[in-house]
Amino acid sequence: MSRAFGYAAITKSDPLVPYSFERRDVGPNDVQIEILFCGVCHSDIHQARDEWSGSIYPMVPGHEIVGKVTSVGSAVTKFVIGDTVGVGVFIDSCRICKSCTQGEEQYCDNGETIFTYNAKYKDGSIVYGGYSNQIVVDENYTLKISPSLNLAAAAPLLCAGITTYSPMRHWGVGSGQRVGIVGLGGLGHMALKFAHSLGAHVTQFTTSLSKEQDAKRLGANEVILTRDPEVLKKAAGSFDFILDTVSAPHDLGQYLSLLKRDGHMVLVGLPSESSTVSAFTLAGKRLSLSGSIIGGIAQTQEMLDYCAEHNIVSDIEVIPIQIINEAFEKVIKSDVKYRFVIDMASLKDE
Ligand code: NAP
Ligand code: ZN
Ligand code: ZN
Question: Could you identify the atom of ligand 1 that is nearest to the CA of residue 293?
C-alpha cells in the first residue's frame, strides 16, 4: 500500500475536505501515476451530492486525470516511467463479455465496469478518484497522451471529450450534415469542437447570452438562444443529429421537433429527474431518441490521437484544489468557460 491524499466528500451535504487514504501496491499489470491535472465534470457534483442516489462515501471524485507514470509493474508492456498518461471514467471491467471484447467496456454485459470513483473493487474496498496526488491503475485501462498537447487542457478529454466524440462516431456525424449541440458547458464545448472538426454544419443551442461569441469562436455556424421558444420553432425540421448535453431537467420535445425525418437525438446529459416524450413526436417523423455513456478504451485512445493530430483540447480555467467547493457552485450556475481543471501541484499533504 502507498499513502495518497486528496479531497473527498464525506457525506452528500458537506463540502469537500482534505482526505488521506491508501492506494494498492503496484501489481504486475499496474502503473502508478503522479496526477498533474484533473478536470471537474458535472458528474462529480451529481455523485458527490448523491443526486443519482447510491453514492459511496468517503468519495474522492475526479475522472479526467492526466499525469506521469512513476512506477510500472513487472508485466507492464505499454508504458515506461515518465510517460504522460490519462485515466478516464472507468478503471476495469470483466474483459470477457461481448461488450468488453468489442471495446465497449463501459457497457460491460456482466455489470462489472468499475468506475474511477463512487465504486468498489472486487474485494469490496472503495475506489478513489483523481482529486488526489497519485493513482494505481491497470495498464489496459490507462491511456497514452501526446506530450505535444497542453496537459491541463487535455484532462477534460478523458470524459467530456470521449463522451461527445463517441456518439458522433457511432451515428456517423460528418460533412453535409446539420448538427445541433444543446448546452454549452464542459461536454457541449467539446461536442461543438468535434462536430465542427468532423465537417458538420453546427448550431449551438444555449440558455446563456454571454456564450454566443464563444460558441462562434469554438466552431458554431449559428447560435440559437433557447430562452425564446419562438426562435426554436423557426428551426423546426432542419437537423440530422442533435446531441443533448444539458445537466438539468428540460423539455426534450422542443428539440426533437427540430429534427428532419429519420433524425437522431442523443442524450449524454444525465439529469437526475426523468423526462417525458410524446410518442407522436417520435412516430410522426420516424425519429430516434438514444443515449450514450462515455466510450471504450480503444475509442478513447482514438479520440486522444485525433485530438493530438488536430490540436483539439478543452478551453479551461485552472484552479487550485482549495477552491473546489466554489468551483462546484459555479459549474451549477453554468459559470465556467468551459471546464475547471485542478492543478494538483496546489495539493498539500495536510
Ligand atoms: P456543465 O459544464 O455544467 O454543462 C451543462 C450545460 O447545460 C450548461 O453549461 C448549460 O449550458 C446547460 N444547462 C444547465 N442547466 C440548464 C437548465 N436548467 N436548462 C437548460 N440548460 C441548462 O456540465 P457537463 O460536465 O458538461 O455535464 C453535462 C451533463 O452530462 C451532466 O448531467 C453530466 O453528469 C453528464 N455527463 C454524462 C456523461 C455520459 O457518459 N453520458 C459523461 C459526462 C457527463 P448553456 O449555458 O449553454 O445553456
Ligand atoms: Zn465526467
Ligand atoms: Zn464485460
Answer: 40
- Any residues with Cβ below 6 Å from ligand 1, and which? 41-43, 46, 159-160, 163, 183-188, 206-208, 211, 245-248, 250, 268-271, 292-294, 331, 334
Half-sphere exposure of 106 (CA within 13 A, CB side): 17
Choosing among 1.10.3210.10, 3.40.50.2300, 3.40.605.10, 3.90.180.10, the CATH entry for 2-159+314-349 is 3.90.180.10
pLDDT 10s digits, 197-219: 999 999 999 999 999 999 999 99
Average pLDDT in the 259-265 region?
98
For residue 286, is it left (φ>0), alpha (ψ between -120 and 50) or beta? left
Q: b vs e for 212-234, b when ≥16 Cβ sit within 10 Å of the residue's Cβ?
A: bebbeebbbeebbebeeeeebee
Q: Is the pTM of this model over 0.90?
A: yes
CATH code that applies to domain 161-291: 3.40.50.720
What DSSP character marks residue 124? Answer: S
Show me where the domains of the chain are located: 2-159+314-349, 161-291
| Nearest partner of 238 among 328, 168, 178, judged by Cα | 178
Count of CB atoms within 10 A of residue 158's CB?
Answer: 29
* Most ligand 1 atoms within 8 A of CB, residue of 245, 274, 341 to mutate: 245
Scanning the structure block, which residue is given the C-alpha cell 455513456? Answer: 293
